[in-house]
Amino acid sequence: MDTYDLIMRNAEEVVTDEEVRELADDPAGKRAYVGYEPSGVLHIGHLLTANKLIDLQEAGLDVVVLLADVHAYLNGKGTFEEIRDTAERMKAQFIAYGLEEDKTEFVYGSSFQLEEDYTLDLHELELSTTMNRAQRAMAELQSGETAKVSHLVYPLMQVLDIEYLDLDLAVGGLDQRKVHMLAREELPELEYDARPCLHTPIVADLTSGEGKMSSSEGATISMEDSTEELEEKVNSAFCPPTRDPEGDLENPVLELFEYHVFPRFETVVVERPEEYGGPLSYEAYDSLADDLESGELHPADAKGTLASYLDELIEPGRRTLRELRAES
Amino acid sequence: MDTYDLIMRNAEEVVTDEEVRELADDPAGKRAYVGYEPSGVLHIGHLLTANKLIDLQEAGLDVVVLLADVHAYLNGKGTFEEIRDTAERMKAQFIAYGLEEDKTEFVYGSSFQLEEDYTLDLHELELSTTMNRAQRAMAELQSGETAKVSHLVYPLMQVLDIEYLDLDLAVGGLDQRKVHMLAREELPELEYDARPCLHTPIVADLTSGEGKMSSSEGATISMEDSTEELEEKVNSAFCPPTRDPEGDLENPVLELFEYHVFPRFETVVVERPEEYGGPLSYEAYDSLADDLESGELHPADAKGTLASYLDELIEPGRRTLRELRAES
């Protein structure tokens, strides 16, 4: 796969394609990032963007993981020391998951977000951004009664992070697009460059195929899951024999194959007894999806296979988590 | 005048009276402040609060003058160096006007407002304050289209200044009351103490007696005014022979006597030729106002007297300004 295709794989959108092509032409030394609020256990939301970071490393870019400890602190996630412990656990899991340690820079927000220059630039951004514009960049639109002033300031901090981390590409889930578009508008106000951005898709809820698989509600997949839990969750997943279920529904089993499994394995083998047709082997997502559509691959076999590949992906991180817990 | 009366003189309101009484009982080492955005020339708005600071010094309090250079910088008033020059000129005028140099601490905003602890506390305040609450504290209510994010953040910085300057009393014009009330609500959210506040009245527009005398529109009085300019402005001022003109109008000539002249002079003498009744002498504002009401004191004589006392008040600052300009 060429550099451009690797960068673009499974991206839901990039802004702009032209800028990403330029990056692909000369990826060496270019810096891409995702920001995470430190959390003890990686879940599917982290893994989706982590897969993209692994692609980008493979494409020759340097990867920056922002550990947003200042936000965690402000959100009441403990003292800075406690948050740092959590973040170090998270970091170990990212590496176990497959991020190359020597090509990944883990940066704490507190190492630059409280410095004088940053703070002054933040105040400049606050002055150049209308309340309405900042409100439109909030993750979820809230009214003035429930929204806090911080809901307007945080997006501006994310805008500045892109400059202060000296990035060439901002990566995030689709829910980050509003902030990244704000960054493209606002960074030039401070005479900084606008940067391209890349957004990963949203995986649908595992059991219903609706909306978004999240760590806060419904079934999700995390590094804490045992092999058995994983099997149980995947086996009860929504998986009609089609890529495109009715209405707004999605097929989360296929999505997990597409976004999580195929990018990380050259070949995906469906173990199947000879009496049911014997093993199937796929080198690309599309052939697996075609077989599910045609009936050649039964949803139950697809689920069993998915569970076992996810288990393999998660196992090193799960082990790391266990070791770290044993130490503490 | 006892300490409490001196603190309260010409105050439009204090919050709360009980807290101010406590301050008055033991004023030594207590710190009161006003914040100003550095400006080259003191005008009536500065002088009104400066009069109060002089009262407070006389009452035994220490006085802190915040030179808000960060805000001036963000408002495009020049580089930090240029703003510092402006602020130093302002400082010299305050001292020439009557602030006691060794009882006045001049503090630059940039000396603490960009530090890590302050910034982190500011983010905490942003998180504990709803957008609506912060909007209600803005100097002028603006809509989301015109209001900038900074309009919500600045009041929160003023709130924190009160803590970081270790103040016991926040002083400002009536236009600061909303911010000071916000401070009383929000400082305890960060486990800091709420502080009492004191607000000076608004002087009406000189020529119309309506609204507010401001430096930006209409006639105002500043340290730049020559004796002749001052005479001309005061002579064309609105001055009906009453304390309480019709409707919403005020008598700005009487207000200037009350808030500016009487606090600074023990006796006010109206020079008047023998043929018009000879000189009049007042030790209190009320007797002068009574005489204006009764017709004993003619508005033209009141104006002439006001101009000459204001001139005396302004002269040292005007000289300082001239000297500083000659140097640069």
Question: What is this structure's SSE topology?
Answer:
The structure is a homodimer of 328-residue chains.
Chain A (H helix, E strand, L loop, with lengths): L2 H6 L4 E3 L1 H9 L5 E6 L7 H15 L3 E6 L1 H6 L5 H18 L6 E5 L7 H13 L2 H6 L12 H16 L4 E5 L3 H10 L10 E4 L26 H9 L16 H10 L6 E3 L9 E3 L2 H10 L4 H29 L1
Parallel strand pairs in A: 2-3, 2-5, 3-4, 5-6
Antiparallel strand pairs in A: 1-6, 7-8
Task: Give the key terms.
homodimer; 328 residues; alpha/beta; Rossmann fold; Tyrosyl-Transfer RNA Synthetase; 2 domains; 6-stranded mixed sheet; two-stranded antiparallel ribbon; 13 helices; 8 strands; 48% helix
User: So what's the overall shape of chain A?
Assistant: globular
Low-confidence runs of chain A: none
Beta-strand residue fraction of chain A: 5-15%
CATH top level of the largest domain in chain A is Alpha Beta
Biggest interface reads: A-B, 32 and 32 residues
**Mean pLDDT score of chain A:** 94
Radius of gyration of chain A: 21 Å
Strand tally of chain A is 8
How would you sum up this structure, described in words?
Two copies of one chain form a homodimer. The model of chain A has no long low-confidence stretch (mean pLDDT 94). In chain A, helix 5 packs across helix 13, helix 10 (227-235) packs antiparallel against helix 13 and helix 11 (252-261) crosses helix 13 (299-327). With 328 residues, chain A is an alpha/beta fold. The first copy, chain A, contains 13 helices and eight strands. Chain A has a six-stranded mixed beta sheet, with helices on both faces. Chain A folds into two domains: 3-200, Rossmann fold (3-Layer(aba) Sandwich), CATH 3.40.50.620; 227-327, Tyrosyl-Transfer RNA Synthetase. Chain A binds chain B through residues 70, 73-75, 114-116, 119-120, 123-132, 134-135, 144-153, 156, and chain B through 70, 73-75, 114-116, 119-120, 123-132, 134-135, 144-153, 156.
